[in-house]
Design a protein that fits this description.
- The chain has 30 helices and four strands.
- It has helices at 2-26, 46-51, 62-71, 76-84, 95-106, 114-119, 127-135, 140-149, 172-186, 194-202, 217-224, 229-240, 247-255, 262-273, 280-293, 298-311, 314-325, 335-342, 347-360, 369-374, 379-391, 400-405, 412-425, 430-439, 445-459, 463-474, 480-496, 498-502, 510-523, 536-541, and strands at 40-41, 44-45, 158-160, 165-167.
- The chain has a two-stranded antiparallel sheet. Strands 3-4 form a two-stranded antiparallel ribbon.
- It is flat, with a radius of gyration of 33 Å.
Length: 559
């Protein structure tokens, strides 16, 4: 009897399971809905629709978007679970990122999630903060309340981890910085938090030596209160007049107003930068603020920056040199100290001073000498020097010959850096174009692709670049994939500028003949090309490349 009963129960269980699976299949419902308390849309759970949120390629699934909008705030418990999960940067679902995208879609409708998001703020990267920013204004009152609460925790927040100093993520210090970052991202939408921000800025806080995760409350106050200068400006002025150790942060906050509050901010910044109580770290922050706030008054600012440059330790002068460069030729009076520093011992200062000297005095031939010399040094010197020259744009034209030599350098990263710098400078000479053509066959993919990209950009308006791309690219020793890509690029350019293709009609090289006819047939399908067939006997003897119909006509090249 017992065996018969057990058999009947087994058969019954199997029938029930089959019926359930058949029901799920017939109604196109997720089987998990049988045992789930999650909100359901069209027979599918919230989890199912979240899993369908992204299509292949990162695009959003319209059907999943419709479902999530219909489920709305009822799906928040699932979203909170997803935002707590570890991110997956490989294959599979990246749960917290998808949750953030859904919060962005829901916006203020997801306000019921605010208390829980504030509880876990900062616990899993910045996913909770991003969600709060997406919810927007409804989150501000609770954020402001929690911000003020963090002031009560003045305990030391750091501990020594396995590799470095770590911060306790439950400490008031850490949570406060996460909230400040969130409010700053909200900007003027977080104006309801102004009283709380003023309280934080006005409260003396411990000055921890480890600045991990440190945020600037004065800057957040300035960003959030941009539309209320009558409230914010007096607070910033009062805070700047307080302990000198905090002047740098207030100066950074003043920068966010640009020149709009120069009448109020400029005098205190000018007094504070060289008053003898400001240390070097705060001095460079004030110098950066002066370059922004006092941009329209170089006659007042530049002399004080020169004094700050000479008063600061060598390791801090590079930042002040950068601030002087912001004034361009209006800071020419700083040229002597900048030139002297460009030949000094400190590598970073030498580089920044040389760049600043060239910017304030573009006609000075001595300014770039240190950077050009560094190109011939080791990689540690060469790469930053090339990068600095690229930042100068056309002011770095005297360094072009030295940069062109780098295009044959055995170190491929040097070639990459040199091409980028030459592009930033705006070089389009014949020598540069020809050397780029040689680099199309480089075994390093980054070099070859960058050379190809540059030639394509130049070939749109430069005939010599077009010819070089055809001769050394499509007809050169490149891979089949590169050959096909370059051919398509040449076809596209020829459609926009047919004259470049017509100029190549008199080829005498067999490979180039085939290339030109192929491009012509793509651009003008069904029409005779008119390209002269090369003589077989001359094909092997003449390897010099393209020959033009009228040798008396010079090649049109951009200098």
């Amino acid at each position: 009897m017992n065996r018969r009963l057990a058999f009947l129960l087994s058969v019954g269980a199997i029938l029930v399971m089959n019926a359930a699976l058949y029901w799920a299949q017939q109604s196109e419902r997720d089987w998990r809905t049988l045992f789930s308390s999650q909100p359901v849309f069209e027979g599918k759970t919230t989890t199912y629709w979240l899993e369908q949120w992204q299509l292949q390629g990162g695009q959003r699934n319209v059907g999943a978007k419709t479902a999530i909008r219909a489920i709305g705030a009822k799906g928040i418990p699932v979203l909170i679970q997803w935002i707590r999960r570890s991110p997956n940067f490989g294959y599979g679902l990246n749960y917290p990122i998808i949750a953030d995208q859904v919060f962005e879609e829901l916006g203020p409708e997801a306000a019921p999630a605010i208390p829980e998001l504030i509880k876990i703020i900062g616990q899993n990267r910045d996913y909770a903060e991003t969600a709060l920013v997406s919810i927007g204004k409804p989150a501000v009152p609770l954020l402001a309340e929690r911000l003020v609460q963090t002031l009560a925790d003045t305990n030391y927040p750091f501990y020594k981890g396995i590799r470095r100093m770590e911060v306790r993520k439950t400490s008031g210090y850490y949570v406060r910085n996460c909230i400040l970052n969130t409010l700053e991202q909200m900007g003027t939408n977080a104006e309801a938090a102004l009283p709380a921000l003023i309280t934080v800025v006005s409260t003396p806080l411990p000055d921890f030596r480890f600045y991990i995760y440190r945020h600037n409350p004065s800057k957040t106050l300035a960003m959030v209160g941009r539309n209320h200068p009558e409230t914010v400006v007096p607070v910033l002025l009062r805070t700047f007049a307080g302990p000198p150790a905090g002047r740098g942060q207030v100066a950074q906050a003043m920068m966010t107003w640009d020149t709009n509050q120069a009448v109020a901010f400029l005098p205190v910044l000018l007094r504070g930068i060289n008053d003898g109580t400001t240390d070097d770290e705060n001095r460079i922050a004030i110098a950066e603020a002066l370059a922004t706030v006092g941009r329209k008054q170089p006659e007042a600012v530049v002399p004080e920056l020169i004094r700050a440059f000479t008063n600061s330790a060598v390791s801090y002068r590079s930042r002040i040199a950068h601030s002087l460069a912001e004034f361009g030729p209006a800071a020419r009076s700083a040229l002597p100290v900048l030139l002297a520093a460009s030949h000094g011992q400190d590598l970073n200062l030498r580089r920044e001073a040389a760049v600043a000297a060239k910017i304030v005095a573009p006609d000075n031939s001595e300014a770039l000498v240190p950077l050009i010399k560094e190109i011939n040094y080791t990689e540690d010197y060469r790469q930053p020097a090339i990068y600095a020259l690229g930042q100068l744009g056309t002011n770095a034209l005297p360094a072009v010959p030295a940069l062109l030599k780098c295009l044959d350098h055995p170190h491929t990263q040097t070639r990459v850096d040199a091409i980028r710098a030459l592009n930033d400078i705006g070089v389009s000479s014949d020598e540069y174009i020809s050397t780029l053509g040689d680099n199309l066959a480089c075994t390093n993919r980054t070099v070859a692709e960058l050379a190809d990209e540059t030639l394509v950009n130049l070939a749109g308006h430069c005939q010599w670049a077009y010819v070089t791309l055809l001769k050394k690219g499509m007809c050169g020793p490149v891979s089949r994939e590169d050959h096909s890509r370059i051919k398509e690029q040449l076809v596209t350019i020829a459609r926009a500028n047919p004259d470049f293709l017509r100029f190549c009609m008199g080829v005498t090289n067999a490979n180039e003949y085939y290339a030109v006819t192929t491009i012509f047939q793509e651009v003008y399908p069904g029409e005779p090309s008119g390209v002269r067939q090369p003589e077989p006997m001359k094909t092997n003897a003449d390897q010099s490349g393209l020959r033009y119909p009228n040798s008396a006509t010079p090649v049109l090249r951009l200098q």
